[in-house]
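hey m, so remember when u said the tokens were messed up on ur end? i reran from scratch. heres the input so u can diff it against urs
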Amino acid sequence: MTKRRVTDVREIQERLLFVAKQIARILEAHEMPYAIAYGTLLGAVRHKGFIPWDDDFDFFLPDERYEEEIAVLRKELPDTIFVEDASSEPKYFHGWAHAKDLRSECDFTLYPQDGAYAHHGISVDLYRAYRMKVSEIPEFFLKEGQAYLERRKKAGLLTEEAFEKRWNHGIAKYEQRKTSSEYCSEEEVFSMVDTYHRCYSFAKDVLPLKKYLFEDTEFYGPSNADAILTSIYGDYMVLPSEGDRVTHLQSVYFFD
């Protein structure tokens, strides 16, 4: 087996697509729900596939079936794909699982904490989508944020000083949300990670799921992609400036 550096993002995308296809195939065979999300959904709508410079793939799985779906994937995915979560990685601190390719290795310069995990391959994110009311979001994210920081600190990946600084920021954000009219609604949403200003999607825009063409495959996604993408990216059909067209990974190696 040889190790070679991959410089063509398209080759990385093809490997990610293989992993994503295996996930979708298994979940659909068991009639388990999933949906493409974030940049993957944007790519499906704007490019009918990957954003040309993108090197990741995002699914969301509903919380009420999450553990069951992860267990099925762990059992049925090919041996070349590793399901990484708290039960398989001692230092795991993310709030969702990864499906990680075992035939690759990445340099985590941008996200050095991820390098603490035993497996360094490219991965597909399996976000855990919690169904709740908008009014429940501030409390939910305060609790989830605290748990995340404590996991990182316990794994030795966050100093006490950094913990306090980030926790104080979380408290300030919580107070801001609690007093905002945006979070007074009792409408149902799916909320995942606090990545964007709009950290949720209305359930009415997610369900019922429908298929989207992505490269040579159709994956399930939300019913109203336009509403969701607009809430996250604004005018999402406009390409970012060339300087903002960056990949997540600096170096990727494949084992042939």
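this time it looks ok to me. The chain is about 35% helix and 25% strand. if urs says something different then somethings off w ur setup not the seq
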